[in-house]
Amino acid sequence: MKKSFLIFVLILSVFTVFSQEKGKKYDIRTIAFYNLENLFDTTDDPTIKDELSPIMEIKGNRSKIYKNKINNLSYVISQIGKGKTKTSPTILGVCEVENSKVLEDLVNSKKLKNKNYGIIHFNSPDHRGIDVGLLYQQKYFKPIHYEVFNPNIYLENQKINTRDILLVSGYLDDELIHIIVNHWPSRRGGELETRPMREKSAYKVTQIIEKIRENDKNAKIIIMGDFNDDPISKSFKDVLKTKKKRKKLKKNDIFNPYEKMFSKGLSTLGYRDNINLFDQILLTSSLVNKKKNNDFSSYKMFKSAIFNKRFLTQRKGKYKGYPFRSFSKGQYTGGYSDHYPVYIYLIKQRE
After folding, report:
1. 3-state DSSP call for residue 124?
2. Distances from the Cα of 86 to the Cαs of 17, 52, 118, 314, 341, in angstroms?
3. Which structural domain range is residue 36 located in?
4. Is 20 inside a domain boundary?
5. pLDDT tens, residue by residue, 78-137
6. Statement: the pTM of the whole predicted model exceeds 0.90
7. CA 192 → CA 189, 195, 231, 324, distances in Å?
8. Least buried of 100, 208, 290, 329, by fewest C-beta within 10 Å?
9. What's the CATH code of the domain at 331?
10. How distant, in Å, are the alpha carbons of 171, 243, 285, 349, 351 from that of 297?
């Protein structure tokens, strides 16, 4: 607790210095990602196997449970980055959502409806209908292009119907950025056995990046998601070739600030006594200042973090110390998600 307090004081003091240095002022934008843990509505969709979702397995009070889950998630989202920006995230990538309707219900909830969030969502080929999506405050971000890519994973000559990867390009204030939202295949069936599927997904991300750079050689790209891999996994280190230290970044390298957090024992979820940091936000070098270089004339990453507030953590029972999940053993717990959100601050000096 003492160490956490000192870190908080240090961060606060740095922001104070930025705001006071020679009268300079800075715009701060929060970019976040959140696995919403089976955010499904209460209506059976015959085109997908949504009956396998936890809420559909509950016999009664589904509407009440759904509303409570929406309200819980909207409260969490409203708090991410608020301490510095006085608002919820400018851009929020999400996964484990069933359809556009659940996202509409989320952004129209009491805690978020005044933020005027736009929604970008496509139905994916996932057999359960689990999709990714992007929410954005229309005041600050203007999308100009979006599309989805499927990793096209085959196992024994049979295509695996996994989640699409979402690409959204647009202007954050007056700067063009590209956001790639991921939810890579799970480790169900064993980490080693399923590893090639995540490496295939990582390779697809490299292809998306190449496509972006055909028209924008120094593109500012943010790669976010629930990757079902840790920062030191081969999908990151061998395929995406992510870098742990910003001072070693070269042009077009990908920086992963969550690798350092992982080495310190931080996590975003726990499962069967394994602690993992699957939820991450990566950035191309064009969005990162090297050490001792405080050039914020354009948007650059200032801080990365895990939003692991105490109220989001299970305090007792079998899952004590893990994120306070919504569903357990076919029952609704009143929790939030089995993942912590992650976020970064992008800052830019005002002219």
Report:
1. coil
2. 18, 38, 19, 27, 18
3. 27-349
4. no
5. 999 999 999 999 999 999 999 999 999 999 999 999 999 999 999 999 988 899 999 999
6. yes
7. 9, 5, 16, 28
8. 329
9. 3.60.10.10
10. 16, 24, 15, 5, 8
